[in-house]
């Protein structure tokens, strides 16, 4: 009976999950200020925009069970759960349990800690070891796929390629995937389309964001979130990226906008993606 019940639930959820794969989701960080004040109201606002799929980077003071109930009441989903590097390493089981309670299939980390001396071989080597260990636990004990989210510094030259290439070579594909942030590929001077072509089989998730025209790219440093513009209005070849992502069979794509104009810009990004289809 238990197996039949699980099968029935899977059949009922499949159309909604398929929709979540077709349509873009959003990263909770995009609406972080609103979530900090009113979780349920912010979910209503996101739902009204036509978005069902959320990648949570924080629980915003809620238990995972309570947050999952809020999502269920609105026909929404959490497909990915973002955690800190420290929590991934020292609280792997807690992270896995929370992700499952949220209904997420993925866990991601968006930053590898490094000091003022910069990202270097020793830091990259330790990160690869930590990712392999935690990724194995998440996959084998919780059925969760771990993904690393790039942030620009990984594309500095190293060996015959970049540190990103090294991380891909030093981690096990079955335990460590990628959430590709296309702005943080483009900004340091690389081409997101080429990365999608090269590592498409490792890229499960993608952050969609665009860079304001006129902002200079740089292999070092970063750029303000205020330089995020609606998709299709910036420097990135969004059509090329989306075409390459489709070929690579990226599972989920999330709009991420770090500006203070998200209530205007996210609908514009959605309009662009709809018209593009």
From TrEMBL:
* Protein name per Swiss-Prot or TrEMBL: Putative sugar dehydratase
Highest taxon of the lineage:
Bacteria
In this chain the Xylose isomerase-like TIM barrel domain maps to 44-275
């Amino acid at each position: 009976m238990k197996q039949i019940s699980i099968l029935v639930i899977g059949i009922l959820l499949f159309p909604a999950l398929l929709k979540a794969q077709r349509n873009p989701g959003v990263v909770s960080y995009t609406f972080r200020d609103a979530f900090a004040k009113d979780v349920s109201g912010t979910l209503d606002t996101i739902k009204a925009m036509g978005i069902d799929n959320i990648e949570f980077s924080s629980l915003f003071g809620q238990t995972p069970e309570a947050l999952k109930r809020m999502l269920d009441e609105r026909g929404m989903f959490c497909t990915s759960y973002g955690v800190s590097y420290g929590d991934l390493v020292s609280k792997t089981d807690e992270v896995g349990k929370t992700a499952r309670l949220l209904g997420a299939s993925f866990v991601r980390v968006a930053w590898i800690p490094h000091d003022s001396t910069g990202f270097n071989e020793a830091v990259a080597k330790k990160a690869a070891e930590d990712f392999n260990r935690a990724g194995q636990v998440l996959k084998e004990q919780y059925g969760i796929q771990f993904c690393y989210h790039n942030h620009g510094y990984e594309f500095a030259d190293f060996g015959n390629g970049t540190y990103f290439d090294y991380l891909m070579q030093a981690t096990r594909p079955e335990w460590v995937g990628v959430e590709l942030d296309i702005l943080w590929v483009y900004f340091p001077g690389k081409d997101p389309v080429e990365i999608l072509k090269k590592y498409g089989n490792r890229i499960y998730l993608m952050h969609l964001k665009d860079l304001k025209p006129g902002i200079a790219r740089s292999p070092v440093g970063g750029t303000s979130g205020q330089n995020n513009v609606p998709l299709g209005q910036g420097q990135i070849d969004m059509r090329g990226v989306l075409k390459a992502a489709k070929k690579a069979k990226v599972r989920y794509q999330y709009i991420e906008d770090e500006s203070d104009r998200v209530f205007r810009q996210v609908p514009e990004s959605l309009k662009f993606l709809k018209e593009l289809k």
